Amino acid sequence: FSFVKLEDDRIGLRLLSWDGQLAVSHLQKNAALLENSEGTDSHSLAFPIGFTRGFGLKRKCMKWLEEWQKLPYTSPYVDASHLDPRTDVSEKRIVGVFHELLHLT
């Protein structure tokens, strides 16, 4: 990394070297393991979700969640500037960013 001066007199970081082999999210790693054994679709990865016993999610909400899980997965490590921030696909990417942050070790 190196320090750079931003337009508004703040200081930012610039990445000097990018290794694409390291830019694989936790969700993608898990999907790759499953692909080898099950042949899953890596384009629309689903987040693991578990509800506590007795948690009642309305059918309408559950249906929306199932459809949302089928949306394309955009890795937190790729440029997503082409995504409209008002779309569900963009929201899924944001969830992916938080998911990745929670799995950093």
From TrEMBL:
Domain PORR residue range list: 1-105
Name the Gene Ontology molecular function terms of this record: RNA binding
Which Pfam family, any one, appears in the UniProt record? PORR
Highest taxon, organism lineage: Eukaryota
| Residues annotated as signal peptide | none
Q: Which InterPro entries match?
A: PORR_domain, PORR_fam
The name this protein carries in UniProt is PORR domain-containing protein
